[in-house]
Design brief:
Layout lengths: L7 E5 L5 H10 L5 E5 L11 H19 L3 E4 L2 H14 L4 E3 L4 H7 L4 E6 L1 H4 L2 H10 L4 E6 L2 H10 L6 H12 L9 E4 L8 H10 L7 E3 L2 H11 L12 E5 L10 H6 L2 E6 L1
Parallel strand pairs: 1-2, 1-3, 2-9, 3-4, 5-6, 5-7, 7-8, 9-10
Bound molecules: D-glutamic acid.
The site of D-glutamic acid has 16 residues, from helix 3.
Length: 271
C-alpha cells in the first residue's frame, strides 16, 4: 500500500525539469513533489555517457533512500537517453523517462522535415537513432546540439534576460542545414528548452522558417504516463509544500526562489 504522502521524485541536472513538472502539477495537483537538481553535475550534455550514467544512478539511489518516492520521473533527455535502462534496473519503483518527441513530430509534420534541438550528448545517442528509425522513416530529421540554450534557460529562471543571439544561433544551426528551410516541427529535446520557447519562436520567425512551424516536446505524454501509473493511488487531501533538493550549495539557489515558488517548490535543501 502506497502512503498518501509518498512523493513523486522529479529529477534533472538543473531547472529544465520544471517544464515537465508544470504538466504533472496540472494532471495531479495533490501529488507531493520532490524536485532534485544535480547542480554539482550540470551540464550533463557536455559529459561522457559513462559519467552521466554513473552520476544519475548514484544520485537517484541516494534520493530514493531518503525520500522513498512512489515513482521517479527523469525529466532530462540527456540522462534518459543514456541511463534510463540502468536507472530502471537499480530502482525498485517505476521510472518514467523523457526522450525526444520524435513520434508526435513525425505524425504532425506536413513538410516531412523535422528539426531536433538537444544537448550534444542527446543528439548523438543510439536511442535517438532508434526513435528516428521506428517513428520517422521517410522523414528528414535534422539534429543540432545547442548547449548554450541550457545556460540561457537557467539564466531566464534566475530572472535575467539572455542574449537574443543565443536563440538566433540555435535556430540557424537547424535552418542552415540542407533542407532546413522546410522544417515545420522543431522538437525541444532537452527539458530546459521549453522554458525559452517564446524566444526560440521569435528567432525562428526572424530566420524565415515556415509560418506553420510548431515546437514539440514530450511533457504532456509524461504527465499522462505518470497519471496512468499512479491511477487508483491515494494522495494528501490538499496540495503540500514541494521540496527542491540540490547537489550544489543551497545559497546558489537564492536567485531561483521566485521562479521555484511558482511551482510550489518552497523548501530548499541540499543532498
Ligand atoms: N535538461 C537536460 C536535458 O533534458 C540537459 C541539461 C544539461 O546539459 O545538463 O537534456
Amino acid at each position: 500500500m502506497i502512503a498518501p504522502d509518498a512523493p513523486i521524485l522529479v529529477f534533472d541536472s538543473g531547472i529544465g525539469g520544471l517544464s515537465v513538472l508544470a504538466k504533472i502539477h496540472k494532471a495531479l495537483p495533490q501529488a507531493p513533489i520532490v524536485y532534485s537538481a544535480d547542480y554539482a553535475g550540470l551540464p550533463y550534455g557536455e559529459k561522457s555517457e559513462i559519467e552521466v550514467a554513473t552520476r544519475v544512478c548514484a544520485f537517484l539511489g541516494r534520493l530514493s533512500e531518503r525520500y522513498r518516492p512512489r515513482l521517479v520521473v527523469i525529466a532530462c533527455n540527456t540522462a534518459s537517453t543514456i541511463a534510463l535502462a540502468h536507472a530502471r534496473a537499480v530502482l525498485g519503483v517505476p521510472v518514467v523517462g523523457t526522450v525526444p518527441a520524435i513520434k508526435p513530430a513525425a505524425e504532425q509534420t506536413q513538410s516531412g522535415v523535422i528539426g531536433l534541438l538537444g544537448t550534444k550528448a542527446t543528439i548523438r545517442q543510439a536511442y535517438v537513432d532508434r526513435l528516428a528509425a521506428e517513428h520517422a522513416e521517410g522523414k528528414l530529421l535534422l539534429r543540432h546540439g545547442a548547449p548554450e540554450l541550457v545556460a540561457a534557460a537557467e539564466a531566464r529562471l534566475r530572472g535575467e534576460t539572455p542574449d537574443r543571439d543565443i536563440f538566433t544561433t540555435a535556430i540557424a544551426g537547424l535552418a542552415n542545414q540542407a533542407g532546413g528551410q522546410r522544417i515545420d516541427r522543431i522538437i525541444l529535446g532537452c527539458t530546459h528548452f521549453p522554458l525559452v520557447e517564446a524566444e526560440l519562436a521569435e528567432a525562428a520567425t526572424a530566420a524565415g522558417l515556415d509560418a506553420h512551424l510548431r515546437f514539440v516536446d514530450g511533457s504532456d505524454g509524461i504527465a499522462r504516463r505518470v497519471s496512468y501509473l499512479t491511477d487508483g493511488q491515494s494522495w494528501p487531501d490538499h496540495p503540500v509544500e514541494g521540496i527542491f533538493v540540490t547537489t550544489g550549495p543551497v545559497e546558489q539557489i537564492a536567485p531561483y526562489r521566485p521562479a521555484l515558488s511558482r511551482y510550489n517548490l518552497t523548501r530548499i535543501m541540499s543532498l
